[in-house]
Design a protein that fits this description.
Radius of gyration: 23 Å
Order of helices and strands: HHEEHHHHHEHHHEEHH
Strand order of the largest sheet: 3-5-4
Structural class: mainly alpha
Largest sheet: 3 strands, antiparallel
Number of helices: 12
Helix content: 40-55%
Length: 339
């Protein structure tokens, strides 16, 4: 699920910005309704909120301390009220039960995200990883400016950011800003933990190609050994989605779950493997691997490499493959779904 989050955080159209805000705010919603003029100009004050029969629950305040605990559920958190219709109180458990009935995959994805966050929090506590409050503030402010700019460009003067946030999330702007900062800190912890754990172990970076026909793979290997560019051939022939990046994978360790791992660690930079057969999804396919770099692990404290990881995350954002690999490796009892 963390991978889903990373995908939603990609900036693009206003719809993309709304989804980014949705994930950061931790609320349910959809794309903004485009209206010529909003019925209520909602501002950041209680008096501007419309009188409605359903009263939204109070948002949790942003914690003063941005330690790893912000990723953990509150141990004594009650089943809080989220809305009220007449004398009927609706609680968080009701919302989850309803979501599980109407959209079971979405409900289970929320559970996956919670489990992922707990794993990240435990590793952050174990290795003394903490986010910097100034860094969180800078990233959150930049995210807010980007969304505000897209609202202004695509919706014009008839809708400001406060109105947009209220209509999309049912939140005051001040509450949304608090939650934005919490989610920004949580995203930082995710990046720090995944990249730091990877840095501590021996890793390799490779390109690979997969194809159902062994003759195609052998032809690629022969051409690469004669001087051809592996990335170009992977783009042309590979049947894996990584073909778009020339078969490139992010650096990985021996615990990475992928058919090419064993072969990858036998290669030196610049070497290409012989074709080999392995399971790929539900069927056997043929593979070739090209080694770009061998990267020995570094047993260093996080404080010594925190700035380096920060720069790396800016230049090379966390990928879906990395978050999936982290979850598969560290989540206990995680099994493949039944066929």
């Amino acid at each position: 699920m963390a991978a889903v989050v990373q995908g939603l955080l990609t900036r693009g159209t206003l719809r993309g910005a709304g989804l980014a805000a949705l994930v950061l705010a931790g609320c349910a919603g959809g794309p903004p309704r485009r209206e010529a003029k909003p019925a209520v100009a909602v501002r950041d004050d209680a008096a501007a909120l419309p009188a409605v029969a359903v009263v939204p629950g109070v948002q949790d305040p942003a914690p003063a301390d941005l330690g790893p605990e912000i990723l953990l559920p509150k141990g004594d958190e009650p089943d809080a009220e989220i809305a009220r219709i007449g004398d009927l109180v609706l609680r968080r458990s009701h919302a989850y039960a309803r979501l599980l009935t109407a959209h079971p995959k979405l409900a289970l994805s929320a559970v996956d995200l919670l489990v992922f966050d707990v794993l990240v929090a435990r590793h952050a506590q174990q290795f003394g990883i903490r986010v910097d409050a100034a860094r969180v503030e800078a990233l959150a402010a930049a995210e807010e400016r980007a969304i505000a700019q897209q609202v202004a460009v695509e919706l014009g003067r008839d809708m400001d950011l406060a109105t947009y946030v209220w209509r999309l999330f049912g939140m005051r702007l001040s509450d949304w800003r608090q939650t934005l900062r919490v989610r920004t800190a949580q995203r930082l912890y995710q990046g720090y933990v995944i990249r730091y754990l990877a840095l501590r172990e021996d890793r390799v970076q490779v390109r690979f190609l997969v194809h159902k026909d062994p003759k195609v793979v052998q032809e690629v290997v022969d051409k690469v050994r004669a001087g051809a560019d592996f990335a170009t051939l992977a783009l042309r022939h590979s049947e894996d989605p990584t073909r778009r990046d020339g078969g490139m994978l992010p650096p990985f360790g021996r615990g990475f779950r992928h058919p090419i791992v064993a072969a990858a660690f036998t290669l030196q930079p610049g070497e290409v493997s012989a074709p080999f057969e392995a399971q790929h999804g539900d069927e056997a396919r043929w593979f070739a691997v090209y080694c770009l770099a061998q990267m020995p692990g570094r047993d260093v404290p996080f404080a010594a490499v925190g700035d380096e990881i920060d720069r790396d995350l800016v230049e090379r954002p966390l990928t879906e493959l990395e978050t999936n690999a982290y979850t598969l490796r560290w989540r206990p009892g995680l099994e493949a779904p039944p066929k």
